[in-house]
Amino acid sequence: MLIYIVSCAYNRAHKQKLVMQKRKQNESYSFDKDIKNSGQYQYTDFSKYSARVATKKQSEEIIRLLKEGFSENIKILDVGCGDGIFTFELLRKINPKEIVAFDCAGEAIKVANNAVEEKDKKRIRFLTRSVYDAHKIFKKNSFDVIVIRGVLHHLINPKRAVKSLSCLSDNIIVLEPNGYNPILKIIENTSTYHLQRGEKSYWPPTINRWFADNGFKVKKQLFFSIVPYFCPKNIVKMLKFVEPIMEKIPYLKLFYCGTNLIFYEKQ
User: Fold this and answer.
1) Nearest-CA neighbor of 149 among 218, 57, 233, 247?
2) Burial code of 44-81, b = ≥16 C-beta within 10 A, e = fewer?
3) Residues with Cβ < 8 Å from 263, sequence gap 6 or more?
4) Which neighbouring-strand residues pair with 38?
5) DSSP state of 24
6) CB 128 within 8 A of CB 152
7) Residues 233-249: pLDDT tens digits?
8) Where does the pLDDT of residue 165 fall: very low under 50, low under 70, confident under 90, or very high at 90 and above?
9) Distance, CA of 182 to CA of 185 (rounded, Å)
10) CA distance 77 to 82
C-alpha cells in the first residue's frame, strides 16, 4: 500500500513537472489552443450555464469596486485580457476614457481585435505582450487603475509579474481563486483542464504579501461565490440559491467561497 501511495505521488509530481516545463516554453500555449479549437476560452463559453453564472458574479463585483472608487473618465489597464470578453464588459459598464488590454496569447488578441467596433477604436486597444515586460512597455503611473482578473494563478513567476505592474498605477484590482478553499485545491490537483494549464490557487496572505513588497496595502478584500465554472446546471441552481446566505457567514466563508477579490492601493 505504501509503495502504491509513493508511486502515485511520484507520478503526480512528474506529471506536474512536465506541465510546468511545457508552460515555461510558452505560457500562452494552452490558451492559444483553446482559441484555435473553439474560437474562445472555455470559461467564456456562456453556453455553459455554470460559466455564465460564475463569471457574471465576478464581473458584478469588479465593476462595483470600479464604480465606487473612480469616475467614468479613467484610464484602465486590463492585464491578461484573453479574448477580450471582459474588457468589452468594462468598456460598456464603466465607460472609461481609455482601456489598454494585453495578453501573451496572440490568437486570443486576434479575436479581441476583430471584435472592436469602429466607434470604439480610439478608446480600446488590444496588444500581444508579456506581463513580465509591462514596466518596459508602458510609462510609469500611466493608468488610473489596473485590473488583473484571473491571471496570477496561471503564471510561472507571479511575484515578478506583480513587480513589473506595480509602477504603472497606484490602484490595482486583483481577482483570483481563493486559495483557502479546500475544494479548489482538490479540483486543481485532479482536473485535467487545470493540470494542462498549470493552474493553482494561492493563499490570500501570500498574494497580499507580493503587493505589500511593492508598496501596496489592501484597501478592500472580498470573498464570494460558491459556484464553480464547470458544474451541472441543477447543482448550480441549488448553489446559487444558498449563495447569498453562505457569503455572509463570518470566517467560514473564507473556506468555501471560491473567489478572492482585492483592491490594492499604493501606500
Assistant:
1) 57
2) bbeebebbbbbbebbbebbbebbeebbeeebbbbbbbb
3) 65, 69, 171, 172, 173, 218, 219, 220, 221
4) none
5) H
6) no
7) 999 999 999 999 999 99
8) very high
9) 5
10) 13
CA dihedral 167, 172, 175, 178 (to 10 degrees): 80
Half-sphere exposure of residue 259: CA atoms within 13 angstroms, side-chain side: 26
Kindly give, in sequence order, each residue whose CB lies less than 8 Å from that of residue 35, ignoring residues fewer than 6 positions away: 41, 83, 105, 107, 108, 110, 111
The rounded distance, in Å, linking the Cα atoms of 246 and 169 is 34
Name all domains of the chain by residue range, CATH numbers in brackets: 2-266 (3.40.50.150)
Radius of gyration (C-alpha) of the chain in whole angstroms:
19
The pTM (predicted TM-score) of the whole model is 0.85
Question: Distance between CA atoms of 206 and 188, rounded to whole angstroms?
Answer: 18
Neighbours of 211 (CB within 10 A): 22
**With 0-12 CB in 10 A as exposed, 13-18 as middle and 19+ as buried, what is 114?**
exposed
- For 239-247, which contacts have Cβ atoms below 8 Å and span 24 or more sequence positions? 240/53, 247/223
Pairing of strands 171-177, 259-266: antiparallel
CA 162 to chain centre: 13
Given a contact cutoff of 8 angstroms between Cβ atoms, the answer to whether 76 and 144 are in contact is: yes
For residue range 72-130, what is the model confidence (pLDDT) as tens digits? Answer: 899 999 999 999 999 999 999 999 999 999 999 999 999 999 999 999 999 999 999 99
